[in-house]
Every structure is written in C-alpha cells, then in structure tokens.
Amino acid sequence: MSTSIRRAAIWSSVFALMTAQHAAAVDYYTVDPMHTSVVFSVAHSGFSYTYGFFRKATGTYKLDKDNPANNSFSFLIDANSLDTNNQERDKHLRSPDFFDVQQYPTITFESTRCTPSNTQDGMIYQLTGNLTIHGVTKSVSIPLRMLGSGPGPYKDQRSGFLCQIELKRTDFGMNELLKDNLVGDAVGITVSFEGSLQQPGTAPVR
Fold first, then answer.
1. Rounded to two decimals, what is the model's pTM?
2. What is the pLDDT along the chain (206 residues), one digit of tens a residue?
3. Dihedral angle, C-alpha 50, 190, 111, 199, nearest 10 °
4. pLDDT in tens, 52-62
5. Residue 176 contacts by C-beta under 8 Å, 6 or more apart in sequence?
6. Count of CB atoms within 10 A of residue 101's CB?
7. What residue segments make up the domains of the chain, in order of their start?
8. Among 147, 198, 200, 155, residue whose Cα is nearest residue 29
9. Sign of the C-alpha dihedral computed for residues 183, 187, 190 and 196 taken in this order
10. Nearest to 82, CA basis, from 54, 62, 58
11. Which of 10, 89, 123, 150 is disulfide-compatible with 146, CB 3.0–4.6 A?
12. Which whole-number Å values give the CA distances from 93 to 57, 88, 189, in the listed order?
C-alpha cells in the first residue's frame, strides 16, 4: 500500500470515528403520555379561573449534547380530549364556537430554533416554533425548563421538562363570549412532560 493511500485510509477512519461520536451525542426521545400534563386556564367573568386539561398528548424530541442549538421538539395534542370537569361546557368548547374539533382535531407544535441558557434554575431552552390551534399557525416563543435527566423508574433513560406560557385565543380565531369578559381572551398554559430515550439504532418516531 502506498503512503498516500495509507494516509487517506487513516484520515477516513478518523473522520468515521468523529462522525460516530457526534451521532452518539444526539439522543432521540419519545414523550410518555402517562407522565405528560397539558393544563389551561381562562378567566370567567372576572370572578374566577376555569381550569381544564387535554388528556391525550404525544410527541418526540431530539437532544444534542454537543450542540444544544440543534435540539428539536414536536408535540401533538388531541383537541377532542379536552376536559374541564363539566360535560356541557366541554361540548361547547369542542363546537365551532371554540376549538371546532371536527374540523381541527389536533393542536400541534414544531420547534424551529432552540437557544440554550444555563441559569440558577437549571437549563432553560428558549424554543421558537410553529403552534397550530384551530387551524391557525403562529410563531411562538416558549421557555422550556429541563427538570431532570438520567435513569428512570422503568429501567430506561429519561428527561423531563416544564413550560408555562400565555396566549390570546383571539390570535387563533376563537372570538366567542368576549363581550362583558364572560370568557377571557388570555389563556394560561402549563405543559410538563417526560420522554424515554429510544434504543440506539431506532429511527426517530414522528
């Protein structure tokens, strides 16, 4: 083997090793629906706040240890799974007056940018992404705090997050019952979720 060929083979091996090490630093997670909570709140006539849940949510995300800016998150919520502990109110919220779940059965979020920052409260990822509610897509900014990462209780590797944001429902085309502030415009949203690490070699779930 000539010196030039041997040198090319060595560099090829080094490049392959570096590529494999970088790939190993990228972890893919599947959101655990059993340990995911999506909670919303809205003012009622200035007297109280009504709270509700979306009971069905799924998602995937990618964490890049070497380059956190490469992290990405994808979330899907079943709009029909909303629950405010009142059947008649839930029926109204599912109607065309609000979520119109027959026409718009899902709520989705797809991140487009991730900016990490290490604070005294831990790692915060400032996510920018496309949020689609009621068929309307808006770019939103979401502060996502990592609550923990490591071995989980089910013999797997896990990570967990929390985010809290406020949106205006009118931005997503839901304008009913605004008169006299019967139902407020501002909606508070809290999402906490866990994800389990996919096995190496497993294709990311979308």
1. 0.82
2. 555 545 444 444 434 434 444 445 899 999 999 999 999 999 999 899 999 999 999 999 999 989 999 999 999 999 999 999 999 999 999 999 999 999 999 999 999 999 988 777 678 999 999 999 999 999 999 999 999 999 988 889 999 999 999 999 999 999 988 877 789 999 999 999 999 999 754 544 44
3. -130
4. 999 999 999 99
5. 97, 98, 183
6. 19
7. 26-197
8. 198
9. positive
10. 54
11. 123
12. 18, 9, 16
Q: What is the dihedral of CA 104, 106, 111, 117, to 10 degrees?
A: 120
Amino acid identity at 3: T
Tell the residue number behind the tokens 């979720």, with chain if given. Answer: 193
Per residue in 70-108, pLDDT tens?
999 999 999 999 999 999 999 999 999 999 999 999 999
Three-state SS across the chain? CCHHHHHHHHHHHHHHHHHHHHHHCEEEEEEEEEEEEEEEEEEECCCEEEEEEECCEEEEEEEECCCHHHCEEEEEEEHHHEECCCHHHHHHHHCCCCCCCCCCCEEEEEEEEEEEEEECCEEEEEEEEEEEECCEEEEEEEEEEEEEEEECCCCCEEEEEEEEEEEEHHHHCCCCCCHHHCEEEEEEEEEEEEEEECCCCCCCCC
The answer for residues whose C-beta is within 8 angstroms of residue 14's C-beta and 6 or more apart is: none
Domain 26-197 has CATH 2.40.128.110: yes
